[in-house]
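Hi V.,

You were right to ask for the full record rather than a summary. Here it is.
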Amino acid sequence: MTDEVAPVSPTAKDAPGRMSRGRFWLALAGCLVGVAILVVLGTWQVERLHWKEGLVSRIEQRTDADPIDLDTLVARFAETGDVDYTPVTAEGRFLHDGERYFLSTFEGQAGWNVYTPFVTAGGDVLFVNRGFVPYEMRDPATRAKGQVEGRVTITGLARNAPPRKSGYFVPDNDTAKKIFYWRDLDAMAAGLTLTSDARLLPFFVDAGPGRAPGGWPVGGTTVIEIANSHLQYAITWYGLALVLAIMTVLLVVRDRRAARAATGASG
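Predicted structure:
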């Protein structure tokens, strides 16, 4: 006579199709952490969206305002440190021998924005972005008619001077050739011959629309449009969080069903 071995019913722990406890808890923890991270990223983008909308609104309010005089602008900068995109009018004369050249594009054409020192009526020195010239017209001799002399009045938008390069991949300025890839005010002012009591104003002014005599430079090249894709980014992060949350629920449901099936089989 042979002994018969009774079949062993699977337990809930080793039921077919069910993860081991260690793998299940690891997967569940990973899913929950992933959902939390995605929600945080989405919320961060919403905060960035509100900040960007406020920035755009502030710029629109400033650019739509009437120009203020230079003394008022100087006082505002001393108080707030921010005069970006503020319309301003100033009187003075250009020092054309101090031109600096900022690599730029305009209407799809490569060239330079011409930054020229401007001695104000009060004796201060202000760097004015007179506007764009084509790449081959960097030499002032190619646009002699545009080198206006004597006392003039300019109207444009004040721009804050950036404290540093905007990114790692921005090239270093070539001060020896007066070529600039970012608007380093101190570097632009280096080498200028100024009177001992002259004060360098701590911001720029972008000249308003219009062409100089002879056609160049052409003003009004300030880029005001600001990209605002934060809503799309927020939707993406929240959407991924929702998908991962659904997958997490399915993981738990599948595990519970496998456990119940194993319990029923053993009964």
